[in-house]
Predict the 3D structure of the following.
Amino acid sequence: MKPYERLALTGRVALITGGGTGIGKETARLMAARGADLMLAGRRIEPLEQTAEQIIAETGRKVLIRPTNVTIPEEAQALVADTAAAFDRLDILVNNAGKGTHRPLRTMDPGIWDKDLRLNLNAAFYCAQAAYPYLKNSGKGAIVNISSLAGVNGTLGVGAYSAAKAGLHQFTRVAAGEWGPKGIRVNSVAPGMIGTELAKANWTKTGYDAMTASKGFPLRRYGESYELAEVIAFLASDAASYVTGELFVVGGGPQIKGMIDTDEG
């Protein structure tokens, strides 16, 4: 196999949760462009339909959609089973469904805490556990869990989300250890500030200046969804065949505070 061919996903089937918008959408587009057929899942059917139509027009790949609430174990299990039945295989699972509730800990309702943990941590477990037998049979099984820098450093105001994403890191490590002998690789990607459609809409709504906020990053800007997709697709491919149990941070560089000005041109 030529080196560049190891990035190809030809003949593989990928299930992407949260696949209708943002990072999930760009990951789906890239994986299809590299040869994968897709099942896209999400709660709202309209974005799934629009993304599927766009990908089919761009690539001609087979793309199916399934509205699903992956926080319900039975729905997650049915989603995985239906994917494997429709394509007669499953090779890649991208656990991308996630969202945080902005609420200080002192006023957070326990129901909100539980809701955020179910979506950002439990759902990944439900889908991964259901996918295990199919990924084992694939011979090239790969799971990519989409985490967050909030799970690395913590973020004020989204305590439940931060805790869930931190838990996702350890789930990734344990699953990689348990399932590696069966040929399944499990990795996670922790995005920093990414300009998804939803994020940009919220920035506009709240007047948040993302470009100014990102001046503290070494790359001096926020990231784009397609930049996350490149890392996710890499981890799902043979190019990452000896990579498992790892956390890949995609955040524009470490946010290091200095004591002197080192920008000398």
